[in-house]
Amino acid sequence: MRFLARRLSALVGVLLASSMIVFGALYLAPGSPEQFLVQGRTVSPEVLAAIRSQYSLDDPLPIRYWKWLSGLFTSDLGRSLLTQQDVGALIASRIPTTLSLAAFAAVLIIAFGVGLGILAGTRGGFAERIVIFASNLGIAVPTFFAALVLMSVLSVGLGWFPVFGAGDGVVDRIWHLTLPALALSLPAIAVVARITRTAIVDESESEHVLIAVARGLPKRIILWRHTVRNSLLPVSTAVGMQIAGLIAGAFVVEYAFTLDGIGALLVNSVQRKDFAVVQAIALIMVVAFGVVNLLVDLLYAIIDPRVRLEKGRS
């Protein structure tokens, strides 16, 4: 519990510092909200002054930050300059698509990334060479290009999957999100497979595994209890980092497959200088990254009790 309390305190500090950076960076970027609102028209100084007063743009930056930060505790994320909708309601209508896409991609990363890495690390030979070649290819192919190839082959060519939309209902949504999730997860699957294979190969040559072999323990026990389990620490770190970055990387896939998620909303809001929406989505990404990292740290103690003992002594 002390370890959890320390990690939660650190997470709160990271979120506070990140909120300052996100809020300040947008106001340092070229352009301004009032320039977007006037749409390039020539307006009088009085109109510009009224716009700046309406959106509190004349207040000092620390005061604007405090108003925004205090609004977060009351679920008031402001109003969109583009649609005049409440930002919380606007994001809430789109976040299920992004979360479904990220969750689907996370399952693919764990299943195929870890599975292929274990296969390559334990079998060797032809299987290992195939996994290494495929992982090199997956790392080299950009996500947007992978999305285009998957659409061209599996949607347009073979007609197995739909090209656009997120679908309705559980089964239909899985069917619609299969190609986007695959495109989003391909680089991560390649990275996790390589790290898993390397961790298992290194662990299989460790002293305690060699002692288990010398004692004549069954190969299945040596593989799963000694080799695979002890190689999961670096693997869980890699999986956690890749999953944490899924929401941030989803905007490319959402744009390619015309999905109404927060990634596509972020791109549109950045282009239109819709500050309130950009700030809220950026903060959501930071929260997701921090929470996943916290879960990975807690997973360490489950995989290896020595981590829990070391944390307790620190």
UniProtKB/TrEMBL annotation:
Superkingdom per UniProt: Bacteria
ABC transmembrane type-1 domain boundaries: 95-296
Cellular location(s): Cell membrane
Entries under InterPro entries matching the protein: BPD_transp_1_N (IPR045621), MetI-like (IPR000515), MetI-like_sf (IPR035906)
Keyword Transmembrane helix in annotation: yes
Keyword entries, A-Z: Cell membrane, Membrane, Transmembrane, Transmembrane helix, Transport
Segments traversing the membrane: 99-119, 131-154, 174-193, 232-257, 277-303
PANTHER family xrefs: DIPEPTIDE TRANSPORT SYSTEM PERMEASE PROTEIN DPPB-RELATED
Protein name, entry field: ABC transporter permease
